[in-house]
Amino acid sequence: MCLDPVRVPTFDDRFRETLGDLFAWRRDVRRFHRDAVDEAALRTCLDLANLSPSVGNSQPWRFVRVSSQERRAGVLASFEHCNVSAGAAYPDSRRDLYRRLKLEGLREAPVHLAVFCDEATDAGHGLGRATMPEMLRFSVVGAIQSFWLAARAHGLGVGWVSILEPGVVTELLDVPEAWRLVAYLCVGYPVEEHLDPELERHGWQGRSDDAKRLLER
């Protein structure tokens, strides 16, 4: 019996150029329309995130959709508390700029996704984690990036809110004890589009040439 060969896709120059555009236009979005997100598009983005690589094929990411207004209010309260403390830690000139920045879209974004790492998963049988257990969480970050790029390709914006208390958010969402919060994402249709990152545009931090260097040893 002759089996059909696997069709290997060809990625041509035009695709690579478009892929470059996707990476360049992926933005950390904080300003959202309140319009509902297309559910089929959201589901497709999550399905694509599930194609991400993971240590030992453990697939430790756990996406939680936060729909409860009470729980969303608790997350917002945690942000506001942390944001005051974070701003106070800067010297005066930097503090004033910090306070002018919009650092979240928690009020406007129609979709909130909390992304956890299941650190008790048996999947993968521990392969690749004995010396670097943090690879579980790194695998979750890879899935988040996959989701982010897929969302951009579907016209959605994503904002990663990290000015939060992980323990508070975990308790609010009533998830298993072994789950550790990696990201809290706001998802929706962007109000505006910019090629340059918002923090660069508003004078906080430009792109660093140091990050581009390829060291050889």
TrEMBL record:
Coiled coil: none annotated. The keyword Manganese does not apply. Its EC number is 1.13.11.79. Signal peptide: none annotated. Keywords: Oxidoreductase. One of its GO terms (molecular function) is 5,6-dimethylbenzimidazole synthase activity. Residues 24-189 form the Nitroreductase domain. InterPro entries: BluB, Nitroreductase, Nitroreductase-like, Nitroreductase/BluB. The keyword Lyase does not apply. Pfam families: Nitroreductase. This is 5,6-dimethylbenzimidazole synthase. It comes from Methylobacterium planeticum.
